Amino acid sequence: MEISTCTVNDVNEIVDLYEAARQLQTERKMVVWPAFENAFIENEIRENRQWKISMNHTIVCNWAITFEDKKIWEERDNENAIYIHRICTHPGFRGNRYIEKIVAWAKAYAIRLGKPFVRLDTLGANTKLIEHYTSAGFTFLGMVELTTTATLPKHYQDEPNCCLFEIDVQKEMKSSR
To answer: Which of 11, 66, 123, 142 has CA atoms 20 to 30 A from the CA of 46?
Structure first.
């Protein structure tokens, strides 16, 4: 198993993962992601913001990151976090708790970049996702109603209720000493 940045050669596989995620979201009556344009994904790849877990030349899980997220995190966003977005798992590899690998990677990456927080959000009152993320080490900070969604992807406009999650990397480092 290897964690690395995605390459442009991964775009079709990422698109397939997003389609599988949309199907699962539809089946489970969750907020459904829009189809993301290849150019959007390629831009994230060029900026080294698309990451993957690979096994035997197959992407088993992928996610995107940003270093700011003001429209969602508002005044809490002080360029002090890594924001994780769009985690999706290959249908044949679901249930393997890749979130734990992502969290370990994100905490190490945040430390290397001098960022005290790892954050993510999810839309709607999805109790299973809340449980999933908190069991992986995130603190559930509560639900907020997003007010500035016009420039966010469509699924944020359709469901403005957003759950916020955070790991305080500095606090964890201090408590482990």
So the answer is: 123
